[in-house]
């Protein structure tokens, strides 16, 4: 099913999504990769505030290439989500409603997605130039010294993604692999 979603989003909106849904996200999302997640974890451990509000927000696991003239951002493809798995449950418990990346997630992330009524989206790997066309504005909001791994606030319009894991734990990577095996028999 194809859906148009405004972001940030509520947990009830996340609960209405199902694994396999095609979505187009419009609004504000944030980027963060390995180094930014590590810093956020260190801030939490030190009792310091995080540099962004998590409640209702989505984090896109992406590090952009430099912007070409007249564009807000360069190529903006997803990175492998499992690299953030050790940090993700804590962020979901603090109100993060979803993530965008590529690849499978750990059992701990799946449990946290279910516990928090969150959602995991996949963006198409290798299509960073195409995905960047959905990004209307980008600004560094934290950890600028990390360069491409800084936290950025993105304004997106009709950013394409697929629900890979919904709030019930249904996982497209598992169901699609099962369907493929059944069709091959």
Task: Report on the architecture of this protein.
The protein has helices spanning 11-15, 34-45, 88-93, 107-116, 128-132, 172-184, and strands at 2-7, 22-31, 58-60, 98-101, 119-122, 135-142, 151-165. Helix 4 (107-116) links the parallel strand 4 and strand 5. It starts with a strand and ends with a helix. The mean pLDDT is 93. By secondary structure, it is α/β, with parallel strands linked by helices. The protein contains 6 helices and 7 strands. The protein is globular, with a radius of gyration of 16 Å.
**Using DSSP, what is the number of strands?**
7
Radius of gyration: 16 Å
Order of strands, widest sheet = 2-3-4-5-7
**Cα end-to-end separation:** 27 Å
Q: Compute the average pLDDT.
A: 93
Low-confidence stretches: none
**In this structure, how is the largest beta sheet organized?**
5 strands, mixed, barrel
Overall body shape: globular
Annotation field: number of helices: 6
Q: Strand percentage, roughly?
A: 25-35%
Structural class: alpha/beta
The helicity comes to 25-40%
H/E topology pattern? EHEHEHEHEHEEH
């Amino acid at each position: 099913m194809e859906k148009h979603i405004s972001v940030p989003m509520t947990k009830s909106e996340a609960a209405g999504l199902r694994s396999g849904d095609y979505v187009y996200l419009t609004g504000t999302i944030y980027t963060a990769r390995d180094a930014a997640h590590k810093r956020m974890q260190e801030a939490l451990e030190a009792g310091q505030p995080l540099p962004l509000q998590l409640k209702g927000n989505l984090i896109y696991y992406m590090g952009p290439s430099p912007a070409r003239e007249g564009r807000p951002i360069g190529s903006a493809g997803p990175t492998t989500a499992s690299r953030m798995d050790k940090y993700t449950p804590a962020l979901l418990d603090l109100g993060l409603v979803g993530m965008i990346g590529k690849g499978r997630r750990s059992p701990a992330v799946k449990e946290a997605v279910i516990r928090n009524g969150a959602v995991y989206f996949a963006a198409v790997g290798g299509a960073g130039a195409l995905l960047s066309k959905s990004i209307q504005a980008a600004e560094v909001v934290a950890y600028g010294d990390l360069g491409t791994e800084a936290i950025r606030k993105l304004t997106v319009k009709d950013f394409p993604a697929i629900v890979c894991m919904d709030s019930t734990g249904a996982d497209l990577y598992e169901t699609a692999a099962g369907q493929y095996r059944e069709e091959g028999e």
